[in-house]
Amino acid sequence: MAGQFEAIRIKYGKVGPGRYISHLDTIRAVERAIRRMGLPVLYSEGFSPRPKMTFAAALQVGVGSVAEHMDVLLERGIEPADVLCMASSAFPETMPLIAVGRFGGGYALPAKIRRARYLIKPFCRDEAGWSCGSLQDAIEAFKATPSVTVLGRDGKEKDVKGLVYAVRAVDGALEVEVACGDKNLRPQYFVDALSAVSGGLYSGAYDFCRTGLFIDLGRGLQDPMDDCADTAFSEVFRS
Amino acid sequence: MGIYGMKAACADGPETIRRRLEQRILPMVQKPGRYAGGELGAIGADWDKTKASILLAFPDAYEVGMSYLGFKILYDLVNSHEGWRAERAYSPWPDMERAMKNESVPLYGLESLSPAKRFDAIGITLQYELSYTNVLQLIDLSGMRLRSSERGEEDPLVIGGGSCTVNPEPLAEFFDAFLIGDGEEAMGEIMWILEMRRSRTISKKQALEALSALEGFYVPAVHDPSSVSIRRRVLDDLERFPAALSNEVVPFVECVHDRTVVEVMRGCERGCRFCQAGYINRPVRERKASTVRAAALESSAKCGYDEVSLLSLSTADYSAIGPLVDRMAPELAEKGVAVSLPSLRIDAFSIELARKVGTHRKTGLTFAPEAGTQRMRDIINKGVTEEDLMSAARAAFEAGWEQVKLYFMIGLPFEALEDVEGIADLTFKVLALGREVAAGKGRPPSRIRINVSVGTLIPKPHTPFQWLGLERSEITEGKKARLRGLMKAKGITLSLSDAFTSKLEAVLSRGTRTMAGVITRAYELGARFDGWGECIMPGYWIKAMEEAGMDMDTEASRGFARTERLPWGHIDTKVRTDFLALEFEKARQVENTGDCRFTACNLCGVCEGGIKNVVRGPEE
């Protein structure tokens, strides 16, 4: 029987106060949600058995998301649509399930993550220095600068330019695609860099939201849910 | 006004608070999840149809407060009633307090982010004396004046509850009312009065008078402590309230205890003479095993915790514990949930229980012989012998435990140096036994570890030792030095309580109303989270005491004559003072007192008018 299992891939979000949940707290919260659902999940051996789950990529505290992913190993197969149904009341509103698909296995999700996309807005839009025009200027300045480094929280210089793959202004917000996985760039560092090259963007706190996560399976970058079958989407997030 | 002068902020509503939190505060503070709300099971933000509201405020960090069963019970009780609303608040950590002050954000309820002043009352639980400066922090951050007499007609009532209310005097000036005793029935009465208050049917003064007429309530503005007698409120039967909570909040942030808690019984009749909880929670009232089991299954399924804790002061004494664990543990294990027992006795039966539930594997076992010699254990009426400890330890080592924690106390009455040295003797005997058992089983004896924790007796109000002061610290320090010298050995780790913390706890728990000024001053100077080793600042307290013309050592070690009226003399826990005095005499005579569940009634005075021990025994 060894080696027989079914896996599902779950896409979920962190909205509202959900953005303040740390990665470790997220893992615990998902474990509890899975127990509430009564999902027939496989447990590890030992004194304190843990559900067998793999999380795609840790999210910084304070950053919201509509693109968190995890794989869960189950004792037996369950229709993704049924999982979504079971999850409706078990997952907190601040951590809503977005989609569930059947996953064929064969690789560890975190090892394949390459890129994340973030939407960045000021919490308070009427602050000086943040407008569509100035955003575009800042992006041009960033693109024109050959190398940009910022001072990280650990006191070390971080090379930002090499880890930013795409950046554009969308409806008064910044959309940026950055390295995620082996190499990582905190969205805050990107904003710091943008601020540095443009002589200051905005002085207040930013509203960061992870809107996409991409894996590379040798067929070009793709959404992790694209490598799933029978994917069911939550009504709320279907659009 | 408190030291913050936050009056202006209090006009602001939830939207302003939310905006300031999101934009200016939460991105800057540690563990922002503690201040954001949005947990599973929290009630919604809608205040429509609210007829009465209370902010349940815990004077310690979120991680501590969220683990407290009493507030879980009251939160559920209030929110299960249509038109009543309870929200939660906790002491902000110093970084958050600074941020709130800078951004003029008052204390708020996590459910709706409403400012504290929007509520009809703020209910603050008083679980330990070292949280008193945090109590002031909560009132101050609410945007109110600290002293009840200086607050206005429109300010919420500030009501205190919890075990420290058995000596309410040090905090009497800050509170409008205290509830002494069990909260289940009294909470409903408070809410009815708050309803009348909210609809302006009665004035604040009338509300306080109404509270003062109810059993268990002490209202400093109405009652004269020198003549009144406030009877503790006792719930006759726990089964009158559900064990399974319908509104239970499951936190995201890791808390002290992340688990489903079911109270199996309230009260303990073992009669350990140092233990305040054992006297102020009498009599024993057990829940039905069937209720406990159903609540554990329902609640763990709903919350999703991987652990269910069967809570009481002494869970191994719950009459149906054996059959209950036998039945529950496998049912829950199937769902990936373990059972834990927070308080075990020192006997083989308890070890067998611990072995069955398995959760103690990770954490190790704790035994509390409390004293090192039989004479001393008889003085404190800890009905445990050395043979009990050795047989329990043997059972534990044989079942595979390699780490055992022993808990002792020093500074006990009639204590001699040989009693202190007995702690070391006993520890070495347990260590030798562990090594012997390990060697016999072919395991390395060097893996056996004994962690010894030695506390200092604080003679608490309403115990037989209440007339005594704290032992002078020079004496206690000498005993600690002796222990340090004796217990330097491989395999033994000794931890000793901090002398200053013990003194502060003694001063606060045994204090009179004059302590109000000291607490206020220490708070103004910056004292917060005094129960946290990393936060306590003795300097603030020493300065505050000096300014009040008091000496910490003198105050801490002050005793009372048998004929004197005690500072807590107006609080009647239903345990007769004569009984406590007799227990003290028996301590002097090194005599034991039995547990009235198993031997004759000791005439402590608690049982009367329908209040009696409720021991149900195993069910068929």
Q: Any idea what the CATH architecture of the largest domain in chain A is?
A: 2-Layer Sandwich
CATH class designation of the largest domain in chain B: Alpha Beta
By DSSP (H or I, 4+ residues per run), the number of helices of chain B equals 22
Query: Please, how many helices of chain A?
Result: 5
SSE map:
The complex is a heterodimer of chains A (about 240) and B (about 625).
Chain A: E1 6-14, H1 23-37, E2 53-55, E3 64-74, H2 80-90, E4 97-103, H3 109-112, E5 113-122, H4 132-144, E6 149-151, E7 157-159, E8 164-170, E9 173-179, H5 187-198, E10 206-216, E11 221-222, E12 228-233
Parallel strand pairs in A: 3-10
Antiparallel strand pairs in A: 1-3, 1-4, 2-3, 4-12, 5-9, 5-10, 6-7, 8-9, 10-11
Helix pairs in contact in A: 1-2, 4-5
Chain B: H1 14-25, H2 33-36, E1 52-58, H3 62-65, H4 69-79, E2 84-90, H5 94-102, E3 121-125, H6 132-141, E4 157-161, E5 177-179, H7 184-198, H8 204-212, E6 217-218, E7 230-231, E8 260-263, E9 265-266, H9 276-280, E10 285-286, H10 289-303, E11 307-311, H11 321-333, E12 338-340, H12 348-357, H13 360-363, E13 365-370, H14 374-379, H15 386-398, E14 403-410, H16 417-440, E15 449-456, H17 473-486, E16 492-496, H18 499-510, H19 515-525, H20 538-547, H21 552-556, E17 571-572, H22 577-588
Parallel strand pairs in B: 1-2, 1-3, 3-4, 4-5, 7-17, 8-11, 11-12, 13-14, 14-15, 15-16
Antiparallel strand pairs in B: 5-6, 9-10
Helix pairs in contact in B: 4-7, 6-19, 7-8, 10-11, 12-15, 15-16, 16-17, 19-20
